[in-house]
Design brief:
- Helix content is 11%, strand content 39%.
- It is mostly beta strands and 314 residues long.
- Strand 4 (42-43) and strand 5 (46-47) form a beta hairpin.
- It is globular.
């Protein structure tokens, strides 16, 4: 079965850094804060290119005659590949924000966005803001926006590598400083900012806030969520994607995976180094495996290895 390397799309962000180079050997601009690497993207403004054949992800998706062969029998009927996968390097706090639910997105000419974070590296002080503290209602939230204490309304959790957080649309959230994350989400780029810590860019200009939109989209009954609780290899599953992780705890441990034609696999080497179908891939490698029924041979080359896999939900 075809296994493709993916050409990353780097995005400069005010909160970014250089960890994608130091951790994963990515060739990023040394003088710019790179906050995101779009690993698998079918956005009009950002198209993933498959290294082996030069085709874009959208080229493959738009090929209706072969879509089910490449992406699997469970592939939905949509204009674009509906999943977007990113690496995030948050060396400063992101804005306090929310994404619109499907029922409200058309009203704001936006796209719904449910997502999840899988934590790859964290500093001792790393944390996330996610959901509301118990007792916070819309009135208290609006007052906190007015007096710039809205961060106090958010539930805060310390993060560690290997943990995951599921974020349905409507859940307020922000990534704190010191987190490197694999993010799996709906194919959407709609974000409504509640507060951005009074930051300004290099030209002294603050980023736009979207207070009225945010207040309509926030789920004010979403209190103090916890990290995802994996079941066997399953990390998170929702109606848009399924995320698994597989551990290898000794060198030269090998396995054979059978693909049955139902789903593609996006594979990310989150720990260690692997040989997959005879080719070596270091930590940080992103791969696209087509859905064609076949055998995928996976061998761990270090004492500990971990692969994260994204597929269609079952």
């Amino acid at each position: 079965m075809p296994v493709y390397n993916l050409k990353p799309i780097f995005q400069e962000r005010i909160w970014g850094g250089q960890n994608l180079k130091s951790l994963f050997g990515r060739e990023i601009p040394a003088d710019k804060p790179i906050g995101e690497s779009w690993e698998l993207s079918d956005r009009p403004e950002a198209q993933t290119v498959l290294v082996e054949n030069g085709k874009t992800l959208h080229d493959l998706w738009a090929d209706a005659a072969n879509r089910k062969k490449i992406f699997g029998s469970a592939a939905p009927d949509s204009e674009r590949f509906p999943i977007l996968i990113k690496l995030l390097d948050a060396q400063d706090k992101l804005s306090l924000q929310v994404h619109p639910p499907a029922a409200l997105a058309p009203k704001f000419k936006g796209e719904p966005k449910t997502e999840m974070w899988y934590f790859l590296e964290t500093t001792p002080t790393a944390e996330i803001y996610v959901g509301l503290k118990k007792g916070v209602d819309r009135k208290k939230f609006e007052q906190a926006i007015a007096d710039k204490s809205v961060a106090d309304c958010f539930h805060v959790l310390k993060t560690s590598p290997g943990e995951a957080m599921f974020l349905p649309s409507g859940r307020v959230h922000a990534i704190g400083a010191g987190n490197v994350i694999l993010e799996i989400q709906q194919n959407s780029d709609t974000t409504f900012r509640v507060y951005d810590w009074d930051r300004v860019d290099a030209k002294g200009k603050p980023r736009d806030l979207h207070i009225s939109e945010s207040l309509e989209c926030i789920n004010f009954n979403d209190f103090e969520p916890t990290f995802a609780q994996p079941h066997a290899n399953r990390v998170v599953a929702c109606q848009y994607f399924a995320v698994n992780k597989v551990f290898f705890d000794e060198p030269n441990q090998s396995d054979e995976w059978q693909t049955d034609g139902r789903s593609f696999h996006f594979l990310f080497v989150s720990q260690g180094k692997f040989k997959i179908n005879g080719k070596e891939y270091p930590r940080g490698a992103s791969l696209f495996v087509s859905a064609e029924p076949d055998t995928l041979t996976v061998e761990s080359l270090e004492n500990f290895g971990e692969l994260v896999s994204v597929t269609w939900p079952e």
